Each structure stands twice: as C-alpha cells, then as structure tokens.
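dumping this here before i forget
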Amino acid sequence: MAFDFRNLVSKYSKSITVEEETGGYFDHEDGGKWKPATKTWETMASVFNLSAQDIRGYAIQYGEGGSFTREDIRIYIHEDLTIGARVTYKSNTYTVSSAIDHSDHAYGLRLYIARKVKKREFMQSSPKGEEDTEVDNDGHGEY
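structure:
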C-alpha cells in the first residue's frame, strides 16, 4: 500500500531553482578547460534544514570523514534530481549529495540531502574563474 504525500509536500512547498550538468566539452581554445552544458529550471519542493537529530541521531555522514551541518537541507520532491545538481533556495546554493527514494511507498516521493555550497567552492567551480574568497553564501567570513 502506497501513501499519498503530494498534498502535504505541496502545502509546505517553496520555489527552488535546479541546475544539472547534462554534458559538456573540453575547450581547447581555453587551455582544455571543461565547459559544462547545463539545464536549469524552477520547481516546487518542501525544503527543511537538517535537524540535530538528523545529524547526530542518525549519524548522517558526508563522504569520507565529512559531516553535514544544520546549514544543509532536506528536499522533499516528486521529481528526480541528479546527485551533484545545484539547488538554489533562499539565495543560497546547495549541492545534492544523496537521495532516498520513497516512491515505492509514497507515490513518487523522493528525499534528497543537499550540502550548502560555500562561496569559495562556488567560485572555484565558476565558469568565469573568479578568484577565491573566504566568505560563505550568507556573507560571513567563516566556513
């Protein structure tokens, strides 16, 4: 038996912008730098910061030795997102890092965990190649 959470997710949904890499090429005229091709769209999703219980109680870990913080988010959505996709929500950028597919039990519901991108990380991956900065998305001088 599958549950239908579409109305609940819709009730708490906010607009997010998703940017996914769809391919790309190496630009030999620009020193062989990778030039990604991207697809960007707006959609609706329920977005929540990770709670202390998410971080400690379930011991969510980010990759090898890393960890999530309360600045990172959970995204509940009825669409597929790609791991590595960039999500912009409330002027902050996040990278989708893991997915939990609940579609077998909840009519297509998916949960994604996304890590907040520090401005330094964003600038390093910027196609314009701007210089690094020590400031995060909120304008604070901390990582």
